[in-house]
């Protein structure tokens, strides 16, 4: 294993992205996101993602110097045209107007169109909860996942995220794929030669498989929770696809043309302002939410993201450890 401080990890990521040809705005937005993943113990969304980011650029499937356009679509709707660039910069430039509209109207939505996406959504949830807003986000990906009862890829991993701000505590955030597991987890199993747990995927004829390569290249991933996860995944296809004028996961796969690049699609973010909903009673009702969190933990249950926050506290002091093989791959990308 190779240990890096967080500044060293950020510098390495930045050097790789600059060497690849990304504009400085993308360098900073992407590096911050992948280092946040590594910092919080989410290694499937950490520095390893740089391999796919650079491969996507080399395949001609992302614009390295895109200039996102913010569009004031309606009183409570922001649209950001990412113009083929990664979603992180589009989110950053659209966030101020989204927050302004949410605080003026109580609720607002932001549609990011024509973006390439690779990251976990909890990073964006934290940006919104830091502003005192409740938030929801979702997006399709490419067709990796079979619907319940099916055997061929149709849905994406289709993550769904939620954020709730808390005074004096880290925000309540969950972020999960509607597939049984994030695709990056299966990629890491393939990279390390590990067998997949049962229930993660099927082979080319729709039979259960523990072979990561078979599932990724010939078969399909599965949704979590059977028909429930399948229904949620279909919902995300609709509200973060046709509703915002963007692609479904199957359509994104067609655009990919077999390059196996990171997915090109849209993203929907919804922000709600507790102050506007509750007025003078806001503190009273937010305290009731705290009672719920206390009751959950009082039974010995863990709140979502607690593991991430614990990992963050440790890595802020000790830095991060990555496999030597990954470190060598990253050094090669740095040139």
Query: What is the CATH C level class of the domain at 2-62 and 313-334, in words?
Result: Mainly Alpha
Provide a count of the helices.
Answer: 13
Pairing-aware structural class of the strands and helices?
alpha+beta
What's the CATH topology label of the domain at 2-62 and 313-334?
Hypothetical Oxidoreductase Yiak, Chain: A, domain 1
- Mean pLDDT score, rounded? 96
> What's the β-strand tally?
12
First-last Cα distance: 21 Å
Overall geometry? globular
Name the CATH superfamily assignment of the domain at 2-62 and 313-334: Malate/L-lactate/L-sulpholactate dehydrogenase, four-helix barrel
What strand order characterises the main sheet?
2-3-4-11-5-7-8
**Uncertain stretches of 5 or more adjacent residues:** none
Order of helices and strands: EHHHEEHEHEEEEHEHEHHEHHHEH
State the helicity in percent bands. Answer: 40-55%
CATH architecture of the domain at 2-62 and 313-334: Orthogonal Bundle
Q: Strand content of the residues, in percent?
A: 15-25%
What is the radius of gyration? 20 Å
Summarize the main sheet. 7 strands, mixed
